[in-house]
Amino acid sequence: MLFSLAVSNSWTLRQLDVHNAFLNGNLAETVYMKQPPGYEDPLHPDHVCHLQRSLYGLKQAPRAWFKRLHDFLVSTGFSSSKTDVSLFYYTLKSSRIFLLVYVDDIIMLGNDASLINDLLLRLSSVFKIRDLGTPSFFLGIETLTDGTGILLSQKRYMADILHRAGMSDCKPLATPASVTQPATPSLKPYENPTQYRRIVGALQYLTITRPDLSYAVNRLCQFMHSPTDNHWALLKRVLRYVKGSLEYGLRIVASPSTEIQAYSDSDWAGCPIDRKSTSGYAVFLGSNLVSWVSRKQRTVARSSTEAEYKGLADVSAEVTWIVSLLVELGLHSGKPATLWCDNLGATYLAANPVFHARTKHVEIDYHFVRDKVATGDLIVNFVSTRDQVADIFTKPLPAHRFQFLRDKLNVAAIQPYA
Q1: What percentage of the chain reaches a pLDDT higher than 70?
Q2: How far apart (Å, rounded) are the C-alpha atoms in residues 147 and 281?
Q3: Under CATH, which number does the domain 2-139 receive?
């Protein structure tokens, strides 16, 4: 979301790295350590060390480091976000600076380059920080710049997954899931379940920049406990699709609008094993995709309207969180978010104050969405199934339909400069 705002407003972006971050943390607890080999005191060989600072490997180390960084940032004028604990923001008149922290990797962005440099000097006076300039490789994600914006790519990571699976030279496919092959359990267990779990776990991290993989990876994750040969075949199909789309990533372009549009869809009773429905949603800030999910519902829905309404409740909660973050940062447009659903029954329920007996069992979800609509925070509109972007998160699709929706999600290859 912050990358979208940065590209749209031409903000300055900086990537920082803290050297030996955990050693900066002060321990609140009393911790003793044996004298390290080679550094024993010959006069007191039985003595132990009383630690003052956190060391790598201590349970308390990550928390101690984050508290030290948190306290310093607050003392310099930063505010800690109540919505996302890893985000700090600094406001001075019309200047806004944001700091995103992931352990010792930091991204700083804002609309005032001189203020960013000033804050960097303050950080460097206390911590040993390397200024890596414009983000290029952050947490395994490459930031590639072209003429229209930036592309978040995990090409190296994808190549590594294919290498680990022994499929670097496999033939590519156009879609990650077949429309004719349901994920049904077979009796023969896969001979190497550890390999299956390792590769599927790696694919989960790949969905950070590849929302088009969300449904296929979510389906594979449901069989982690006892994968079969059939599930391994499904996994290989996903890898063959990855092989054919190595150049693809999540595109973020300059967007004049900051309105929130969300698409919600559900595939009623789509799982042949337990007949639970699969829900998916896509949330756009302007024209950029900022949040998405593909998830099996926890309970069995008794109608397609109920399945769609549960999906609406999920996306309503996500949109509420995004709006609260934007309001906290002073970046919200003030306009209500629009939710698009392709089920007329669900859209009528969201606006209809009459509560029917046949919908009593979805009462909690009903009240949550209904209250948001009644207060004007959300607008629920109908969209045709053909234009339902979230369709890609709920079921396998034919190649032409899959590629059409993939483009709508801004998943694209890097564009050369004109």
Answers
A1: 94
A2: 29
A3: 3.30.70
| C-beta separation of 408 from 187 below 8 A | no
For the stretch 18-62, pLDDT in tens is 998 888 888 888 999 999 898 889 999 899 999 988 888 888 899
User: By the 8 A CB rule, do 315 and 264 touch?
Assistant: yes
Measured distance CA(248)–CA(242) in Å, rounded? 9
In the chain, what are the domain boundaries?
Answer: 2-139, 140-254+405-418, 257-383
Which candidate, 115, 44, 45, places its Cα nearest to that of 77? 115
Pairing of strands 141-145, 137-138: antiparallel
H helices of 134-269, in order, are 155-164, 193-206, 214-221, 229-244
Residue with tokens 């997954």: 161
Strands (E), 320-409: 337-341, 378-382
Q: Supply the DSSP symbol for 189.
A: B
User: Token match 């971050």: residue?
Assistant: 21
What does DSSP say about strands 32-34 and 48-50: parallel, antiparallel, or unpaired? antiparallel
Domain 257-383 carries which CATH code? Answer: 3.30.420.10
φ, ψ of residue 167 to 5 degrees: the values are -125, 30
Q: Which residues of the chain have pLDDT under 50?
A: 417-418
Q: What is the token pair recorded at 48? A: 């132990």
Spatial distance between the Cα atoms of 219 and 183, rounded to a whole number of angstroms: 8
What is the CB-side half-sphere exposure of residue 354 using CA atoms within 13 A? 5
Q: 377: which DSSP letter?
A: S
SS3 of 214, please? Answer: helix
Q: How far apart are CA 73 and CA 79, in angstroms?
A: 8
Listed in order, strand segments (DSSP E) in 201-332 are 248-253, 260-267, 278-285, 288-296
Angstrom distance (rounded) from CA 389 to CA 383 = 10
Q: What share of the chain is helix, strand, coil (3-state, %, to 5)?
A: 40, 25, 40
Instruction: Give me 300's structure tokens.
Output: 């069995």
What pLDDT score does 141 carry? 92
The 10s digit of each residue's pLDDT in 305-331 is: 888 888 888 999 999 999 999 999 888
One-letter amino acid at 105 equals D
38: alpha, beta or left, given left = phi > 0 and alpha = psi -120 to 50?
left
Establish whether domains 2-139 and 257-383 are of one fold.
no
Statement: the pTM of the whole predicted model exceeds 0.85: yes
Kindly tell me the number of DSSP H helices and DSSP E strands found in the chain.
11, 18
In this predicted structure, what is the pLDDT of residue 418? Answer: 44
